[in-house]
Amino acid sequence: MNIAHVLQRHARERPSQPAIIDGPAHAQRILTFAQLDEQVGRFAALLKALGARAGDHALIFQPMSAELYVILLALFRLGAVAVFIDPSQGRAHIERCCARIPPKIFIAAGKAHLLRLISRPLRRIPIKVSVGPWLPATVNYGRLFRQQACTEILDCNPDAPALVTFTSGSTGVPKAAVRSHGFLLAQHRVLAANLHHVAGEVDLATLPIFVLANLASAVTSVIADVDLRRPGAIDAAKLLRHIRQQPALRSAASPAFYQRLAEYCRQQGMTLNNFTRIDTGGAPVFPDVLAQLHAIAPNAEIVAVYGSTEAEPIAHIYWRDISRADRDRMLQGKGLLAGPPVAEINCKVIRDRFGTAIGPFSADTFAQQYCATDEVGEIVVAGEHVLPGYLDGVGDAETKFEVDGRRWHRTGDLGCFDAHGRLWLLGRCTARIEDANGVCFPFAVETVARSDARIRHAAMVAWRGRRVLVVEYRPGAQGDDDELRQHIAWAKLAAVVSVRTMPLDKRHNAKIDYPALMALLDRTQTMRTSQGDS
Fold it and tell me: What gap in Å lies between CA 351 and CA 376, rounded to an integer?
C-alpha cells in the first residue's frame, strides 16, 4: 500500500490530462499526469542516488507549487517520510521539532536555505536539495532531469509513516501528527466522497492537503497565484485575473481567503458564475461568509466544513440547508451550526471533562457518557481518517481514549446535537466562562456578533474577571457598542471594546489569536466601554 500508486494509475489512464497548473497568469505551467509521474520518478531516482532510503525523514520548506508535489510523491515512492514545520514559529521551534524527528534530508526553496546560517541542526542535515538557484553545499533540484526515472514504488505497510506535521507547541512540547499511507488513503476516500470529486474537473487549490486529494481523484489543481501564506490578505484582483484565464469549477479555502475575494467582487460588481462548488473550513465558518459566497457565486453549492488537524472532515453543511429558523437559533446564542457528521466518522458529544484523562470504556459505560439532545458537551470522534495518536505518545493522554480497544480523539471543542442529528459548535472547552453570572459560551456570543454586517471579527474573553466582547469593525463602518451590548444582553457583558485590527492566527488569518488579544487588552489599559459599564 502506497498512495503513490494512485498517481501512477492516473498517469496510465489519463496521461494528457493536466494534473497541476501553477505560475503567474502570463506564464502558466501545465504539468500533465504523465509528466508529473515522470518527474516524480526522476526526483525519486535523484534522492536514491544521494542516499535517501525508506524511513528517512525529509524536512520540506517549499511553497505550494508543482515542485512541492513532485517532492512529496517522490518521497512516498521511496517510503521516506515528509516532514513539515511552520517556519513562522521561529528558529527555536524548528530546532525543537528537528530534535524530535532528526531529518536526513533538507529540501527547500532558495531563501529557506538561509536558515542554515543561523541553525546548527539544519547545517548538520546530510542531504540538502535547493529548489531554485544553486546554493553552496546543496544539490540543485534541476538535476532530476538528468536522472533515469525510477518506476519502482515501495509497497508500504498501511501503518508506515508518510507525512508528519507539528503543532505550535505553545503549551509545551510540539506534538508530531504522523499520517500513515493507510491514513492518507482513508482521508482521500472520505474527502472524495464528501467533496464530490469528479475526475477531470478543475479545482482552484489553496490548501496543500486538498491538492493531494485532487491528485488522488484525478482532479486538475490550479494553484492560486497569490501569497497563500496570508489568505486574509491575498491580492484579490490578481487572483481573479488568474481565475479568468484558467476557469475553475470548484474550490476549497479558508473563510479569510473567501472573505477577501467576496469583498473585492462586491466592490467591483463581479460574480463567479462558472463555479459549481465552494467548500470552506479550517476555521469557524459564520453564516455571513456563506451568504457572501452565495452572492458572488450564485451557481455554486456553498459548503461549510468542520474538521481539525486530527480529523478532516468531521461534519459539513450546505448553505441551502440552513433555514431561517436555524439562523434565528444562532442569533439567540445556540452556537454555530456545523451540520450532520460525515458518514465515515463516528461522532459523539459526551460530558465535558477536557483536561482530565478519561477511559478506557466499554461500549456500555461509554454510552453512559453521552449528552442528551441539545445538551452541551465535549465533541469526540473515531474513524479511519482520525489520527489515532501522536509521535511517541506525546499528547495522547490528554486527547485520546479507548472504547473496547478502539481509539477515539477528543477535539477539545464543545458542542451539542439537535433533534435532527446535526452538530452545533460552542467553541473550545477551555474557553467556557463560569462566573457569578453563570455559564457562558464565548463562541456563541461571537456568532451573534458576526451577524452584524458592520463587524469583521469578534472575540469574547474573560478579562480581569469581566466579560468583554472585542470587535473589529469593517473599514468605513460605524459601530454602536451600546446597541451591540443590548442586542446580546443575555451574555451579561461588562464591556464592548473595538480595536483597529484583531490579532489572528498566522496560518488561516481566520481564527482569533486569544493570547495575543489578551496581551493587547493588557497593553491598552484604557477601555472604551458601552454605557453602564461597571
Answer: 8
All three cell numbers of 510, joined, read 481566520
Grid coordinates belonging to 491? 451574555
Going by C-alpha positions, the residue among 418, 416, 411, 435 that lies closest to residue 426 is 416
Name all contacts of 326-333 with Cβ < 8 Å and 24+ positions apart: 327/287, 327/451, 330/287, 330/447, 330/448, 330/451, 331/448, 331/451, 332/448, 333/441, 333/444, 333/445, 333/447, 333/448, 333/488, 333/490, 333/491
For the chain, percent of residues with pLDDT exceeding 90: 78
Q: Report how far residue 416's alpha carbon sits from residue 371's, in angstroms, rounded to the nearest whole number.
A: 8
b/e sequence 388-422, b meaning 16+ C-beta within 10 Å: bbbbeebbbebbbbbbeeeebbbbbbbbbbbeeeb
pLDDT tens digits, one per residue of 301-333: 999 999 998 999 999 999 999 999 999 999 999
Instruction: Give CA–CA dist 176/309, Å, rounded.
Output: 11
CB 313 within 8 A of CB 281: yes
d(CA 473, CA 174): 35
Q: What is the pLDDT of residues 475-503, one digit of tens each?
A: 888 877 788 888 899 999 999 998 999 99
In the numeric block, which cell numbers belong to residue 248?
A: 475553475
Sign of CA dihedral 359, 363, 364, 369: positive
Give the span between the Cα atoms of 284 and 254, in whole angstroms.
Answer: 9
What contacts 59, CB < 8 A, 6 or more positions away? 83, 85, 98, 103, 105, 106, 107, 108, 122, 125
Which residues neighbour 240 within 8 Å (Cβ) at sequence distance 6 or greater? 261, 264, 265, 270
Query: Which whole-number Å values give the CA distances from 498 to 186, 457, 477, in the listed order?
Result: 44, 10, 12
Q: Is 165 helix (H, G, I), strand (E, B) or coil?
A: strand
CA 429 to the chain's CA centroid = 20
Taking a C-beta distance cutoff of 8 angstroms, is the pair 439, 446 a contact?
A: no
One-letter amino acid identity for 56?
Answer: D
**CA geometry: angle 101, 106, 110, nearest 5 deg:** 140
Question: In whole angstroms, how large is the CA radius of gyration of the chain?
Answer: 24
Q: How confident is the model over 239-250, as a mean pLDDT?
A: 85
What is 50-92 written as a DSSP string? Answer: HT--TT-EEEEE--SSHHHHHHHHHHHHHT-EEEE--GGG-HH
Spatial CA neighbour of 340 closest among 375, 383, 305: 305
Q: Exposed (0-12), middle (13-18) or buried (19+): which is 462, by Cβ within 10 Å?
A: middle
Backbone angles phi, psi at 147, to 5 degrees: -95, 150
Task: Let me know: does 494 contact 462? Beta carbons within 8 Å.
Answer: no
203 with 249: CB under 8 angstroms? yes
Q: What is the pLDDT of residues 333-357, one digit of tens each?
A: 999 999 999 999 999 999 999 999 9
Where does residue 39 rank: exposed (0-12), middle (13-18), buried (19+ CB within 10 A)? Answer: buried
Cis (ω within 30 of 0) for the bond into 475?
Answer: no
Integer Cα distance of 336 and 283 in angstroms? 12
